[in-house]
Amino acid sequence: MDSIKYLLNDNQLPENWYNLASDLPEPLAPVLHPGTGEPVGPDDLAPLFPPALIEQEMTSERWVPIPQPVRDILLQWRCTPLYRARRLEKALDTPAKIYYKYEGVSPSGSHKPNTSVPQAFYNKEAGIKKITTETGAGQWGSSLSLACEMFGLECLVYMVKVSFGQKPYRRAFMESFGAKCIASPSETTASGRAILEKDPDCTGSLGIAISEAVEVAAQNADTSYCLGSVLNHVLLHQTIIGEEAIMQMDMAGDYPDVIVACTGGGSNFAGIAFPFMGRKLRGQQDVRIVAVEPSACPSLTKGRHAYDFGDTAHLTPLVKMHTLGSTFVPPGFHSGGLRYHGMAPMVSHALQLGMCEATSYNQLECFAAGVQFARAEGILPAPEANHAVVGAIREAERCKREGKSETILFNLCGHGHFDMQAYIDYNAGKLKDYAYPEDEIAMALAGLPSFGNS
To answer: What residue ranges are annotated as transmembrane (predicted)?
Structure first.
């Protein structure tokens, strides 16, 4: 019988996270203090993060142990299944073999709890009482509210205003787990009020929401800030996905020729790709890795690799990343989790070193691929995950044209059960593709900081 799913036992749950920094041929550019332009140290990050996460942010160790209390919670849904997409292969009439790692089985329906749980754990250990954060589509806010409830922490979520209106069920999920959810930009912070004064109808952005969350955390000693993507320690936590996938591909007697993942801030991409990338860097097995992003917010394919702020109000340190400019406000397309102006420094660095490649697709093409996938495989993807789906389908179509039987692996990072309004709009013909706003990005890039960019 041809297998369609590959399952690991509880005792096969990885005991360590993998750190790509240990295998990089060139180190990452240092994080800079916005006031001095000098590299930041642990003390500079202490107002926002607990010591354990600061250490993980800066470590060069290859393997970082996963605490047992974290593993105990992760075991509620991990290890996640790997599927062979045989019905999709048949529908595409492709010689390619397509596999997908499905992260939608987590309690919040995405890959995000892989990092929200350890972040909540380390904050609890450090005596923190409250956590602030931002969220785009709501997947991260949902995951952090869940983790905070598990560890008895208060949770305050600033949700990008356009998503706050588009995705009421995500908001309801957060509130059901005790979190407070505020539409951003808001009147509750100085940075939010400043944005609203300039543009009362501002639809918000992840950069703005980050500013509000960071401002609250920095002003309260019992409060920390948690980020759902971009930072090294977040990407580190997500590598549990790829570590499991390596074992599951071995169970299938196969290995990917191509890995595809959607990219917004970089956590989902890093989760599936970094462990395979590390094997490639260590000379074990080669693989081609493709990052797929939305054409309306194309930080990797159209952004500049430069030092920039992670937030709009410039409260964060400066990191070198592919960026569209910290003041760039993307259009309100439905993939809210991919509307960030920048890309994770380590993902950006990997692209600069030629360790991966990047491409982009428009919204309608992504939704069409998601519906095609759902009708073949029975899982309706989140709008963000549709970018990985279309990327995998295009690779399978290429294999058909070239007559090649390559193995394609992609990360289906979440289900679309909270995104039905997006599918309602798509099926009704109400969605549209957003043009790449070159003039707005040019204006935002013109405001890049001088530190490190001369």
So the answer is: none
326 shares a domain with 406: yes
**Residue at 412 is within a domain:** yes
Per-residue pLDDT tens digits for 300-315: 999 999 999 888 778 7
Spatial contact of 334 and 381, defined as CB atoms under 8 Å apart: no
* Residue 213 located in a structural domain: yes
Specify which residues 160 forms β-bridges with.
Answer: 184
Task: Write out pLDDT tens, residues 73-111.
Answer: 999 999 999 999 999 999 999 999 999 999 999 999 999
Interior/surface letters 390-415, b for 16+ CB within 10 angstroms, e for the rest: bbbbbbbeebeeeeeebbbbbbbbbb
Asked if residue 155 and residue 39 are part of one domain, the reply reads yes
Count of domains observed in the chain:
2
What CATH number is given to the structural domain containing 119? 3.40.50.1100
Handedness of CA 87, 92, 95, 99 (dihedral sign): negative
Helix ranges (H only) for 342-437 are 345-352, 363-377, 385-402, 420-427
276 occurs within a structural domain? yes
- Give residue 413's domain range: 5-10+75-109+233-445
DSSP 268-301: HHHHHHHHHHHHHHTTS---EEEEEEETTS-HHH
Q: Are β-strands 304-309 and 288-294 bridged in parallel, bridged antiparallel, or unpaired?
A: unpaired
The answer to whether the beta carbons of residues 131 and 144 sit under 8 Å apart is yes
pLDDT of residue 333: 54
Ranges of residues in the chain with a pLDDT under 70 are: 1, 331-339, 454
Residue 13 and residue 18: Cα distance in Å, rounded?
13
* 188 shares a domain with 123: yes
Domain identity same for 246 and 154? no
38 phi/psi in degrees, rounded to 5: -95, 155
Per-residue pLDDT, 452: 79
Within this chain, do residues 378 and 299 fall inside the same structural domain, yes or no? yes
Residue range 320-344, pLDDT digits in tens: 999 999 888 776 555 545 667 899 9
Kindly report the pTM of this predicted structure: 0.94
Structure tokens at 231: 């930072």
Considering the domain architecture, whether residues 93 and 219 belong to the same structural domain is answered as: no
- Between CA 212 and CA 210 the distance in angstroms is 5
